[in-house]
Specification:
The chain is α/β, with parallel strands linked by helices. 39% of the residues lie in helices and 23% in strands. The protein is built from 4 helices and 6 strands; from the N terminus they run βαβαβαβαββ.
Length: 137
C-alpha cells in the first residue's frame, strides 16, 4: 500500500477553490480516499466550515500574518511542509497566475511532476490519473 493518499485542493481564489472541490470530490470518490482543502492566509479560519460544506473531509488551515498577501515563497514553504508531512496522492492547485507559479515551485521542491492548464482530469479503470491539457502554440 502506498504511503501517499488523499486528494488535496488549493486556490487563493475562493470561487476556484469551490470548483476544485467538486472535481477533487470526483477523483477522491473514484480512489476511495479523503478530500482535503488547504487554506492559507490571514484570519481565514472561519472559511474552513464553508469548504467542509462543499465536500472537503478535512481542511488544513495555516493562518499567519505573513500570509495577509500572497507571497509565493511563503506559500511554497508552507505547502511543502504540509505535503511532506501528510503525503497527498493528488494535489490540485487553481490555474491562476499565482497558482501556476506556486504549483511549479512546489513541484520543483518536491521533485515531482506538474501539469498546468488541464481541461479534464479523470481516473481510469486501473486507478491511473489521466488528463487533457490546453497547449498554447
Amino acid at each position: 500500500m502506498s504511503e501517499y493518499h488523499g486528494v488535496w485542493v488549493f486556490s487563493e481564489n475562493k470561487d476556484l477553490m469551490l470548483e476544485l472541490l467538486g472535481k477533487g470530490s470526483e477523483l477522491a470518490d473514484k480512489l476511495q480516499t479523503e478530500l482535503v482543502a488547504v487554506l492559507l492566509g490571514h484570519e481565514v479560519g472561519d472559511q474552513a466550515n464553508e469548504l467542509m460544506a462543499h465536500g472537503a473531509n478535512k481542511v488544513y488551515v495555516v493562518d499567519q500574518p505573513d500570509f495577509k498577501s500572497l507571497h509565493v515563497d511563503s506559500y511554497t514553504s508552507a505547502l511543502t511542509s504540509l505535503v511532506n508531512q501528510y503525503k497527498p496522492e493528488i494535489f490540485l492547485i487553481g490555474s491562476t497566475k499565482r497558482g501556476k507559479e506556486l504549483a511549479s515551485r512546489l513541484a520543483t521542491r518536491l521533485e515531482t511532476g506538474c501539469v498546468s492548464d488541464c481541461t479534464e482530469l479523470w481516473i481510469d479503470a486501473k486507478g491511473g490519473l489521466l488528463m487533457n491539457r490546453v497547449v498554447y502554440g
